[in-house]
Write a structure and sequence with these properties.
single chain; binds adenosine-5'-triphosphate; 22 helices; 12 strands; alpha/beta; ABC transporter transmembrane region fold; about 10% strand; six-stranded mixed beta sheet; Rossmann fold; 2 domains
Length: about 600
């Protein structure tokens, strides 16, 4: 395997524009607008209750200054107690409501992103690498979810507090509000600089994280090949370079954040100084009491926390926005527009002049013509790398040809709705997967409504009954990862049983007999024959006994059909198949 060095800035999936991201967020928020309204109302009530506390404290100062009676303290103390209680109760209620709505919105968004991720055109995933996709559905979802849980409730609380506290200051005396506003230019200066500078930094940071994930996935996913070809140092270097880039970008964003905070502190200093100065002047000329000046200073100090939180949140919001744009980016990738098309009438599969290449790589299938007639079993044979698996994926509509057409019953597969296509054509790849869960759940993935009897019948056809009947809890046995272990042959049989349940007219099978051992392989061959009976089938035959049982054999070499015909005729001839057949016989 040649492992060309990947450029660190490789193509990744698209990132949505801020507008597209807002549209996606709004789409997820819309069904929850009642909840959002209620949460807003409760949060506003909480903040309003808090506004009563500084003037009540101011009143206490005034009473103390003129040595008033203890009875005069009762009213302000009651106000403080009630306001504190309301703040506590309504505050936690509002918080709960916001978090609840946030979770619902996040769930809706995550579901849409995941379902779109599963529909992404294979070519797009090949081009951008699975690491980027994994990083988006893990890191970026985490980032947005953290923001919705923490940042959004705080952001709302902070915004309400700032606005309503300024109203409170103005209610005491408009000059206090004016003094408080002196700090604003510093905040705006900080915030504007940050909102302009930070977004590209965060986007770049996330992109570097995506590249690092990709490098890790490639190294760990292909660990055996990496070891076998002594590619460790090269992969380590690549992971190291990607990590270094992610680290450098993280530090750059952290530096920007530190700058931002220093401007905020300048704002706090100026604002508090101005309010105290105005307070002193107003008390001096008798237009305000000492208590009112105290209340004004308390009001302004109350702003520290929310403004600080806004700063923090601006930081988190920027970061979450970058993640949201990456998630929404997945939603912007057009899924192949399949108009629906007329469902195919006959299970006839034809490939006409099909050409294909992976991502930006060279062409690996060079103009293949192939017809599988209804009910016919055609075996694809050829040496490793000839293009058999690729051709099977093209026939199943997983890849789209760059030229030529794949037709099902005369209808171009590219025009067929995916669900219609899957109903008619099923693909069983070499990498069969037994999903964690009970055996029945695993099988019902193919046909959700199937009864236990139907499941058992399908297992019977796939030749799996002998071992399934011995399972401790039969169909309810948990199989796969963390459950009852299944062998490679058993996993294949489960896949074949799923195929029988799905009951497609056309089956495309990439035979995985390589690791099965010869006894297991013979077992599977019989299972396969039974499952394929009556169906149109295209088989990637790694074992020539499978090819010998087919109606027709197509020999592929270097992405081209070099020979085709009935297996016994070809075996008796002198062409490439006869050569493969003799080598196979000799090697048995
Ligand atoms: N995901 C991929 N990305 C890039 N190139 C690929 C990919 N999969 C296969 N190829 C290349 O396409 C060509 C055909 O490969 P393919 O797997 O279809 O051959 P095959 O005949 O099925 O081989 P095998 O019998 O070993 O499975 C090979 O040159 C291979 O390196």
């Amino acid at each position: 395997m040649s492992a060309p060095d990947l450029p660190l800035e490789q193509a990744t999936l698209p990132v949505a524009t801020p507008r597209q991201a807002r549209r996606e967020l709004w789409r997820a928020l819309r069904p929850e607008r009642l909840g959002v309204g209620l949460a807003f109302a409760v949060l506003a009530a909480t903040v309003t209750a808090g506004l009563f506390i500084p003037p009540a404290l101011g009143r206490i100062v005034d009473v103390a200054e003129r040595s008033g009676t203890p009875a005069e303290l009762v009213a302000p103390l009651v106000v403080i107690t009630v306001a504190t209680l309301v703040q506590g109760v309504a505050g936690s209620g509002g918080w709960y409501l916001v978090v609840r709505v946030g979770e619902k919105v996040l769930a809706a968004l995550r579901e849409r992103v995941l379902s779109r991720a599963l529909q992404l055109p294979q070519a797009e995933v090949e081009r951008s690498g699975t690491g980027d996709l994994v990083s988006r559905v893990s890191n970026d979802v985490d980032q947005v979810s953290e923001a919705l849980r923490e940042a959004v409730p705080q952001l709302l609380w902070a915004a309400f507090t700032v606005v309503l506290t300024l109203v409170g200051l103005a209610a005491l005396d408009w000059r206090f509000a004016l003094a408080g506003l002196v700090s604003m230019p510093f905040y705006v200066w900080a915030a504007r600089g940050y909102t302009v500078v930070a977004p590209p930094l965060y986007t770049a940071e996330r992109a570097a994280e995506g590249v690092r994930s990709q490098a890790l996935v490639e190294t760990l996913g292909g660990v055996e090949t990496v070891r076998a070809f002594l590619l460790g140092p090269r992969h380590l270097r690549r992971v190291g370079e990607a990590s270094e880039m992610a680290r450098r970008r993280r530090i750059r964003t952290a530096d920007t954040t530190a700058w931002f905070f220093s401007r905020i502190h300048l704002g706090e200093l100026t604002g508090t100084g101005s309010v105290l100065l105005v307070g002193a002047l107003l008390v001096g000329d008798g237009s305000a009491t000492l208590g009112e000046a105290t209340a004004a200073a308390l009001y302004f100090i109350r702003l520290y926390d929310p403004v600080g939180a806004l700063v923090n949140l601006l930081d988190e919001a920027q970061s979450a926005t970058a993640s949201l744009r990456r998630l929404a980016g997945i939603l912007q990738v057009p899924v192949e527009a399949r108009a629906g098309g007329e469902p195919p009438v006959a299970p006839r599969l034809s490939l006409e002049g099909v050409r294909f290449g992976y991502a930006d790589g060279p062409e690996v299938v060079h103009g293949v013509d192939l017809v599988v007639r209804p009910g016919e079993h055609v075996a694809l044979v050829g040496s490793s790398g000839a293009g058999k698996t690729t051709l099977a994926a093209l026939a199943a509509g997983i890849h789209e040809p760059v030229a030529g057409r794949v037709l099902l019953g005369g209808c171009p597969v590219a025009d067929l709705d995916r669900d219609v296509l899957r109903e008619h054509v099923a693909l069983v790849t070499q990498e069969v997967h037994v999903f964690a869960g009970t055996l029945a759940q695993d099988l019902r993935l193919a046909r959700p409504g199937a009864t236990d009897e139907e499941l058992l019948a399908a297992l019977e056809v796939a030749g799996a009954r002998p071992w399934v009947d011995l399972l401790p809890e039969g169909l309810s046995t948990v199989v796969g990862e963390g459950g009852h272990p299944v062998t490679a042959v058993q996993a294949q049989q489960v896949a074949l049983a799923r195929l029988a349940l799905r009951d497609p007219a056309v089956a495309i099978l990439d035979e995985a007999t390589a690791e099965a051992g010869s006894a297991g392989a013979r077992h599977l061959e019989r299972s396969m024959e039974r499952v394929l009976e009556g169906r149109t089938a295209l088989l990637v035959a790694h074992r020539l006994t499978t090819a010998a049982a087919a109606d027709r054999v197509v020999v592929l070499e270097h992405g081209r059909v070099v020979e085709e015909g009935a297996p016994e005729e070809l075996a008796a001839g002198t062409g490439p198949y006869a050569e493969l057949w003799r080598a196979w016989q000799a090697g048995r």
